[in-house]
Write a structure and sequence with these properties.
This protein has about 350 residues and is an alpha/beta fold. Helix content is about 30%, strand content about 15%. α6 links the parallel β5 and β6. The longest helix has 22 residues. It is globular. Bound molecules: phosphoric acid mono(formamide)ester. The site of phosphoric acid mono(formamide)ester has 9 residues, from α2.
């Protein structure tokens, strides 16, 4: 049984719990018939306020394969969000109908808010440029399956490290394993946010920032490619300038180790040339399939929980969040800039971090 009620950020699961999920996912993969009625009578609510292929369909496939059922929407235009219903009220309502909620939302912190008002587990299926913890479970399960380990890996993260929520969650999750190091490949405009660079420094995790794939590909065990996130850019010209900043092709793959693997959360645009798909080191389609098994394990484990959180009224903090993409700027929500260190404050919803200047 998991200690957490909901999965909002990668650290909601301990390393031991992730290991348990791997074991369960392995068993589900090998003995699917044993689990075909494991969620009979249970209902999943899928609330997708943003487009998705893999995350929504893998969650829905997972629940169907476990014998459960699914209700929800993939177009927020067909929901009462268009009439002004808040995330908090929607979560209250869906928790009156379903047994578990899966939510994707463009506002950072929206699934966290949902979890504060829901009586049933909430799974964050991606919130803006912030986090995507079930993609991270998929990535870790891919490491476990391909390498037989999740430690001692040199991971090169390439592309949009600023808005790429999969990268943000993966860094936080991998920080707990021994012998992990990162190469951060991005143009200056798409560098990893400061709060995550500070996080890497605090945890003393080796990393280097480089401009070119060629500066990191020879040494890495994993090359994790990402799409430039068009939908997060305020300046469309900047997107046009940066969108094709990296293209992995067969020529660059010649520089990589024999046992290196290429991963990508997908969807891909042009950042991986289709010729790479035929290289045995390309694991991104298999990675997406592994996502279904680990999500089956997650659903089963969260539904076993039975813990009901008590809704408490939060008082606003004096300090307010300055992240314009945080849910607290779109819907009335108590400000929650909490002190996390000496002179350091962090938003409960979106992780925006502010340091007091002396
Ligand atoms: N990896 C991922 O989140 O893909 P979708 O946007 O298609 O769900």
């Amino acid at each position: 049984m998991l200690k957490t009620h909901s999965l909002i950020e990668p650290q909601d699961l301990t390393v031991e719990e992730i290991e348990q999920l791997f074991k369960l996912a392995d068993d589900i993969k090998h003995r699917p018939l044993l689990y075909q009625n494991a969620c009979a009578g249970k209902l999943m609510g899928t609330l997708f306020y943003e487009p998705s292929t893999r995350t929504r369909l893998s969650f829905e496939s997972a629940m169907n394969r476990l014998g459960g059922r699914v209700v929800g929407f993939s177009d927020p235009g067909s929901s009462s969000a268009t009439k002004g219903e808040t995330v908090a009220d929607t979560a209250r309502m869906v928790s009156a109908y379903a047994d578990i909620i899966v939510m994707r939302h463009p506002w950072e912190g929206a699934p966290k808010v949902a979890s504060l008002y829901s009586d049933i587990p909430v799974i964050n299926a991606g919130d803006g440029g912030h986090n995507h913890p079930t993609q991270t479970l998929t990535d870790l399960y891919t490491f476990h399956t391909v390498f037989g380990r999740t430690d001692h890996l040199n991971i090169a993260l390439c592309g949009d490290l600023k808005f790429g929520r999969t990268v943000h969650s993966l860094i936080q999750a991998m920080s707990r394993y021994e012998g992990v190091s990162f190469s951060l490949i991005s143009p200056p405009e798409l560098r990893l946010p400061d709060y995550l660079l500070d996080f890497l420094k605090e945890k003393q995790i080796p990393y280097k920032e480089v401009d070119r794939i060629e500066d990191a590909i020879a040494d890495c065990d994993v090359l994790y490619m990402t799409r430039v996130q068009q939908e997060r850019f305020a300046d469309k010209e900047e997107y046009e300038r940066l969108k094709d900043c990296y293209i992995l092709d067969a020529e660059k793959m010649k520089l990589a180790k024999e046992n290196m693997v290429v991963m990508h959360p997908l969807p891909r645009v042009k950042e991986i040339s289709t010729e790479v798909d035929y290289d045995p080191r390309a694991k991104y389609f298999r990675q997406a399939r592994y996502g279904m098994f680990i999500r089956m394990a997650l659903i089963l484990s969260l539904l076993e929980g039975g813990y009901q959180p008590k809704q408490t009224r939060l008082e606003s903090t004096a300090r307010s969040c300055k992240n314009p993409r945080c849910i607290c700027h779109f819907q009335e929500q108590p400000q929650q800039m909490l002190q996390v260190g000496e002179g350091v404050y962090r938003c409960l919803y979106c992780d925006y971090t502010e340091k007091e200047t002396q």
